[in-house]
Amino acid sequence: MPYLHLYGTPIVYDRWGEGPDTVLVGYHAGQWSDCELPPGRRYLAADLPGHGRTPAVVGAGDDDLAEYLVGLLMMLHLTEADLWVHPRARALGRYLSERLGLSVSEAACAGDS
User: Fold this and answer.
1) 86 near 24, Cβ under 8 Å?
2) Which InterPro entries match (predicted)?
3) What domains can be seen in the chain, in order of their start residue?
4) Residue 80 pLDDT more than 90?
5) Beta bridge partners of 4
6) Nearest to residue 96, comparing CAs of 13, 23, 43?
7) CB 3.0–4.6 Å: which of 6, 17, 46, 94 could bond 13 by disulfide?
8) pLDDT digits over 8-48, tens only?
C-alpha cells in the first residue's frame, strides 16, 4: 500500500498498469471499480483525506482535497499525466480545471450521469 505524507497526512494511493500515465480523479481508489478503464495505461488512484484508507483532515472541503491531489501529482512527477474525473467527483475536476488550469476528461462509469 504506497503512500506519501502531504501536509502531515499520509495519502494512500494505488498504481497499476503499463503505458501513459493517467491520474484518476476521485475521492477514493475503490470508486473506480465501476468504470471502464482501457488497458495500455498506467493508472494512479488516490484515497483523499477522509476517504478510503486516508485519515480525515478536519474542515477539508473539495478545494482542499484538490490541493492534496495536486501535491501528490507534483511529488510523483505526474504533472503531465492525463486526468480522468469520476462522475461523482466533478467538483474536484472543476477545481483542477478552473483554478489550477489543468485539463480534465470525465471517465465513463456505470450508473453515473
Assistant:
1) yes
2) AB_hydrolase_fold
3) 3-106 (3.40.50.12270)
4) no
5) 11
6) 23
7) 46
8) 999 999 999 999 999 999 999 999 999 999 999 999 999 99
**How far apart (Å, rounded) are the C-alpha atoms in residues 38 and 32?**
12
Chain centroid to CA 76: how far? 13
Chain length of the chain: 113
> Cell digits for 23?
491520474
Residue 70: strand, helix, or coil: helix
Burial class from Cβ neighbours inside 10 Å (0-12, 13-18, 19+) for residue 3 reads middle
Look-up of cell digits 462509469 = 109
The 3-state DSSP class for residue 31 equals helix
Reduced to 3 states (helix: H, G, I; strand: E, B; else coil), residue 23 is: strand
- Cβ-contact 26, 88 below 8 angstroms: yes
pLDDT value of position 98: 84
Handedness of CA 70, 75, 79, 84 (dihedral sign): negative
pLDDT tens-digit profile of 52-66? 999 999 999 998 999
